[in-house]
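WARN retry 2 of 3 for item q-0093 after timeout on previous attempt; input resubmitted unchanged.
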Amino acid sequence: MNISLKSLLQNFPNQLLPLLLSLLNDAFLLGLSHLGLHFQWLKWLSLVILYCTFLYWSVQLLRYISKPEV
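OK item q-0093 returned
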């Protein structure tokens, strides 16, 4: 398997985006609940982000598995 540094650097922001969205949402959820503010839509947003992250990683894994080796 040949992985180039260029391809890793190009894909890194795409791979980091779901994680950053999840961490940002969790920070808002914890910070606001600590202040006594509870927003139901933040809880739903957590589930949506988690589902989308899982879906994104699944698609990436399927692309990697189905990619023909050269």
